[in-house]
Amino acid sequence: MSAAWDGLLLLDKPSGPTSHDLVDMVRRATGERRVGHAGTLDPLASGLLPMVLGLATRLVSYLPASPKSYHGTLRLGLTTQTDDSAGEVVSRHAGPVPVAERVLEASALLRGDSLQHPPAVSARKVGGRRLYRLARQGVAVEVEPRAVSVYRFELVPLPHDPAEFSFEADVSGGTYVRALVRDLGRELGCGAILTSLRRVAIGPMRPSPGLRIDTGSVLDPARLRDELVPLEDMPLAAPPVRLGEEVAVRRFSTGSSLRLERAASLGPCRVLDERGRLIGIGEIRDGALLPRVVLCRHSG
Fold this sequence. Notes:
The chain is α+β, with helices and mostly antiparallel strands. It is 18% helix and 34% strand. The strands form four sheets. Strands 1, 2, 3, 4, 7, 10, 11, 12 and 13 form a nine-stranded mixed beta sheet that branches. A five-stranded mixed beta sheet has the order 14-16-17-18-15.
């Protein structure tokens, strides 16, 4: 029997394909049907796309969701349907764009906590339907804004064109960088669009140099196997709890709660067996370990 594909791949996505395209590529290369990703990237964007395989698909909600770190470029003086360079132009600013000092002042106003309206063309669901599908049908909908945090948004003017800037941004999960650039353009009164974007990190996760994907390439299963982060080494946002007795492991694996001596209420935790293997996610409450995710793993 071939080894299981249980773990995490830190893919370096190119600009062009969708996140789902990369899921299909990994499925074909590995033969594993249970493949998902943590944190969608738009086709225009490149960089870190965490991919979970096999049993790891049950752990995706315990991976770090923020801060998400990006490098990118933007252009002043334009608005588009998608808030980036891939969309149809809606308006062009007449006259010169604001000077760099004014742009940097406006970018500082967007840092901190706020309510952000998602782009009109995005994967956000309204009434069970994706916004991009509604936009294609010409259906205008009211979308509730979402609370987001912008921890850092630093711009640098590019020397060849006063309308172009590079930027670095650290944001909370659920933040649309396209919308952040759009809101900068509104603050300046001239419009702005995203022209390139690369995700460089999500929490402690970085794209693996060995998993840089070329457009149109076929993934090498041996390379994926070498780069697969096992379940035990996934950067799950929960402290470990080791069960030292086989009977305790069996009880947890059958979904039964356990009493733990001197256990405070710690919330979610990674549960390891006596060999240090991850067997699931539990929650410690009032001295008891309650199973939340049980991973059925082969013994041996």
